């Protein structure tokens, strides 16, 4: 029947914080109530999410999750990045909240995840796709990258994802350079999330890009990756500091 809709109902500790976060993503508040129980509905195009506040709620313990299908995950991800950067001054990539990088297949974004201020996972997929789309289709290092993405992006286990990539890079030293580049960038992102120095991986990826013709998409991917790295790590990677910019 037409007109039927499903609203995921997600908890949060503070309704105002949740509404501010979803507003940064581009959602608009279509309903809210403060008493007796604080709750609201936020909407973006055909996406509608119901939020409710719980006193004493711990976002770190949330099991809330929603699967959302969209026509163009890449465009949606870029819009979210821009909104979060404007709201927070940077794109949060670790902790709560955070925006995870897009999952890609053949250079095309197939999906991504957002963790909101309530610790709830919003899992965005390209309409008609799923996490299993690449299962069995790639081999070697490519398959290791896909497995790592399921661990890090779908399940939130960044440490296990790094371990999978470490093993894959060791096991497949002769893998295609574009796959090595992809693995290095993803491991750099995972290291940023876990507070580990990502500069060596970014430097290695940059060297691969300079040595081999990996294409414009690889250049854009490296640029996006560098933007997520804390300033101190960028200085370490380039060997420069703020003092280098000051006149002696």
UniProtKB/TrEMBL annotation:
Residues 234-248 have a biased composition (Basic and acidic residues). Residues 225-248 are annotated as: Disordered. This is Glyoxalase-like domain-containing protein.
